[in-house]
Hints:
74% helix; mainly alpha
Amino acid sequence: MGSFSIWHWLIVLVIVMLVFGTKKLRNIGQDLGGAVKGFKEGMKTGEETKEQIAQSATASEKTVDVQVKDVNK
């Protein structure tokens, strides 16, 4: 009674296909795939942004030594 056999899963799959239809299931799959693709692109863009921030931070850390002269003396 702990786990389902392959026959249980096949019966559930057939019932789901009868209720929703193959076209609707295909559309759900395409929508889910598009969402995963968009998420991956978003993560990729996030990593590129982190690299750009790190590069700009190292560029701004450069200092210039100058000598200050007092004009009022």
